Amino acid sequence: MIEVENLVKDYDGNRVVDNVSLTMEARSITVIVGTSGSGKTTLLRMINRLVEPTSGTIRIDGQDILDMQGYKLRRSIGYAIQGHGLFPHRTVAQNIATVPELVGWDAQRVQSKVSALLELFQLDPSLYANRFPGELSGGQQQRVGVARALAAEPNILLMDEPFGALDPIIRAKAQDDLLAIQRKLGVTIVLVTHDMDEAFHLADRIAVMDQGRIVQYGKPAELVLKPASDFVRTMIGERERPLRLLSVGTVADIVETGDAEGEPLQTTMSQRDALSAMLWTGRETLPVIRPDGQKAGLIRRDTLLSRAAGQV
User: Coil, strand, or helix at residue 297?
Assistant: First the structure.
């Protein structure tokens, strides 16, 4: 758990982060969004003390981070940035091994971790371990960057616009990979982005920043249904709001009793993806199954369209 209390950061008399307080739950994904200059990156970098706070407190599992040595704190927290930040003169394996070697892991443990992470990110160690970053695609470089951030088995992963340099197709795949890995490893992720689609896709909770302050912090559904201000409403986007409503709900929320024909949908699927499937197949109804494969019922296209219009 990360607890931020009355956090302030001033630069030359300018307040960049202004009295921010929030709690980020363990094993969750918190996404910080805001326009350029809102203070979101500064807030992120104060968690691992790349930026020292002017005042206020940050606690990790109850311990004040100012009671820790900065370099030891940073080695215990994964950090991934836009453009991956790989060392161009080091191989993929050497890049991933950077922090484990710094903290004194033995060679066998390092090699085992490097191979395991490459396999986790679907990069065959026999093909990629000895390549240099310049020999990889942008998406592959980004995966190696996240693998390096996770190499020393941190409980926390900080990510600053990690997918901003990727094209839309690779970016979507990278986001899905991140969700799968977070579920597998149980790491607590704090991610900064200006992309609201990315925020809604990844976040358990979203913190919206404006002029150094948190103007709303809550679950994605709360932001869509009850935006705290015109700024939050603008960030969400009025035109996008119908699809956002569907993005934050699952099929399980609208399943009805009954049978239907067609390719079944999972109860865990978002309503937005369910509507896409129904429009693509031209179906008015589709069957729904639970993760264990048991029948759950059906959903109706009219119900989804009504929800998108805010009528239910």
Answer: strand
**3-state SS record for 122-135:** CCCHHHHCCCCHHH
What's the pTM value of the predicted model, to 2 decimals? 0.82
Cα angle: 303, vertex 305, 310; to 5 degrees: 95
Element holding 56 (H helix, E strand):
strand 55-60
The dihedral built from the CA positions of residue 290, 294, 296 and 299, taken in this order, carries a sign that is positive
Which bin fits 293, alpha (ψ -120 to 50), beta or left (φ > 0)?
Answer: left
Beta bridge mates, 64: 59
**What confidence tens digit (pLDDT) does each residue in 80-101 have?**
887 667 899 999 999 999 989 9
Rounded to whole angstroms, the Cα distance separating 106 from 311 reads 60
Write out pLDDT tens, residues 283-296.
Answer: 899 999 998 889 99
